[in-house]
């Protein structure tokens, strides 16, 4: 049985989904359902942290392509952060590296979530408009504003 673990964080109109495990034909529906739900909230930026993805097949890759297209249609920037070697390899082999740039904005969003709020434990904080994103240098999202470079 393939296992896919995901955590989701929201702050200031942005969303971060941290994905761990195998992204393949059996786990694709779970990823798609989670990301489509988040896209329905219309975040300005959605960052997929793929640093803990241990395996990805063609169906997992197709999920990323479809989700990116849906994000663009909804006015959301879909960015990647911490791309694992298996994901980087398949993106390179298929020529899709250019379609999924790992940008400074993705790193800024991820780092904003990496700092817990005062009084909140765990590896990720919720973030707030006056704190984490202000310190990250990433502007707040405003109604479909795209941060994609």
UniProtKB/TrEMBL annotation:
GO terms for molecular function: anti-sigma factor antagonist activity. Signal peptide: none annotated. NCBIfam families: ant_ant_sig. Belongs to the anti-sigma-factor antagonist family. Residues 4-116 form the STAS domain. PROSITE patterns: STAS (PS50801). InterPro entries: Anti-sigma_ant, STAS_dom, STAS_dom_sf. This is Anti-sigma factor antagonist. Transmembrane segments: none annotated. Residues 112-149 are annotated as: Disordered. Pfam families: STAS (PF01740). It comes from the Bacteria.
């Amino acid at each position: 049985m393939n296992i896919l673990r995901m955590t989701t964080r929201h702050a200031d109109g942005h969303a971060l989904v941290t994905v761990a495990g195998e992204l393949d034909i059996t786990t694709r529906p779970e990823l798609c359902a989670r990301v489509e739900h988040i896209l329905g909230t219309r975040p300005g930026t959605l960052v997929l942290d793929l640093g803990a993805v241990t395996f990805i097949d063609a169906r997992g890759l197709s999920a990323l392509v479809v989700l990116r297209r849906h994000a663009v249609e909804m006015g959301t920037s879909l960015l990647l952060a911490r791309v694992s070697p298996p994901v980087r390899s398949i993106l390179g082999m298929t020529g899709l590296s250019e379609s999924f740039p790992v940008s400074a904005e993705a790193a800024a969003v991820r780092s904003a979530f990496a700092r817990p709020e005062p009084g909140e434990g765990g590896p990720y904080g919720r973030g707030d408009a006056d704190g984490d994103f202000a310190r990250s240098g990433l502007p707040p999202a405003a109604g479909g504003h795209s941060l994609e470079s």
